[in-house]
Amino acid sequence: MPPIATSAPRRPVRLLAAAVVLALVGLNAYRMTVIPQPWPRMALDWALVAAGCGALYWRRRRPVPVALAVLLCAAVYYPANPYDSPLPVIAFAVALYTVAAEGRMTAAVTLAVLAMLAVGYGELAPGQGGGRHVDDAAMVLLTGWLFGVIAAGHAQRSRQAYLREVEQRAVAAEREKEVRARQSAVEERLRIARELHDVIGHSLSLINVQSGAVLHRHTKRPGETRELVAALEAVRAGSRDALRELRATLGVLRQADEEAAPTAPAAGLEDVGALVERASAAGLDARLVTEGLPGRPVPPQVGLAAYRIVQESLTNAVRHSGARRAVVTVRHEEDAVRVRIEDDGHGVPGEAAQGDAAPGREGPKEAGSAGDGSDRGPGGSAAGSGIEGMAERARALGGGLTAGNVRGEDGKGGVRGYRVEARLPLGKSAR
């Protein structure tokens, strides 16, 4: 973003100041010719004026010494001069303004007091012939003018500080915006990767299983044409569903209107039955059980999360666990939907002591937490990334997910399957 201007353009101000100085110098020269003086005295007056005005060149570097030097030049110039040139007092006002603008308020007030004391001493000093250069009203005006200059310098400093703070805040906000944009991009990439994994991985896994079954049946029993045709129909249906869901996912990514675009392909609890049927077509004896209060409205994000969890669990059961049967239980509770997928596969070999779930109760550790063995899915495959994705979906809705091996009735027997159970609250969404 472009930097915020902390001061007005200096070129016009400098041109105006130069014009004023030239006018004052001309006026000063004219008045000197009207009241003639000896050349040594005139040279001293011009030297004092030049020294006082020239010292202003260093006012930014050394504001207090420069102001003090200008004040001394004015103190020497005015008492013995028959006319009052405005140049020394204007130079002192500029120096005093700079001191205040640099934040040296104590020094500025001290210099103003010294200036007034010098004026008073000059009026009362011997040799003035009883006349006065400055009357009482002028003294009051001069005092107010000097302190007005100090106030203007202080106001300028406050304005500069405010503008610097605004600029710093704008830069910080811009940086924070960039960080949030990068973080949002990373989260979006992760979400897209999770969606593609869930959508494509499930359907292609079923296609792979069905294709293997076709080849096996054709090799062992080439005469069973009817079963071969049924298997090929299942392969075709699976590939068609995969393409349909892929198009839906890509359609979401291509949406130009972010507010009108859905956050994921339209899938929910009403589609879980189709998942179970596809798993059955792949050779898994799968069935769906609905409990609780079915028919209650379920938020779309909850339905999508439940659908993806069932999808990933059935995919793992078909691909990795060697399961023959699986039961999908969807329970509608007052404030949540609970989904449980349990199969009779061999579970996670070598990790039975971590993330186990005894019958009727959840495992002691949440899937995806450290030490739960979720870096591998059933059968030690790379499906653990899917389990972590399921746990992330549940956590995003304020719920939780457990996954682990299932033991015998007493909880001490051998592994007899694998269970994934998730609780998805209805009234809370992380996004």
TrEMBL record:
MF GO annotations: ATP binding; phosphorelay sensor kinase activity; protein dimerization activity
Catalyzed reactions: ATP + protein L-histidine = ADP + protein N-phospho-L-histidine
SUPFAM superfamilies assigned to the protein according to its UniProt record, in alphabetical order: ATPase domain of HSP90 chaperone/DNA topoisomerase II/histidine kinase
UniProt domain Histidine kinase/HSP90-like ATPase: residue ranges: 305-426
Superkingdom of the organism of origin: Bacteria
Keywords per UniProt: ATP-binding, Kinase, Membrane, Nucleotide-binding, Phosphoprotein, Transferase, Transmembrane, Transmembrane helix, Two-component regulatory system
Ranges of compositional bias, category Gly residues: 376-387
One cellular component term from this protein's GO annotations in UniProt: membrane
Transmembrane segments: 39-57, 64-80, 108-125, 137-155
Protein name: histidine kinase
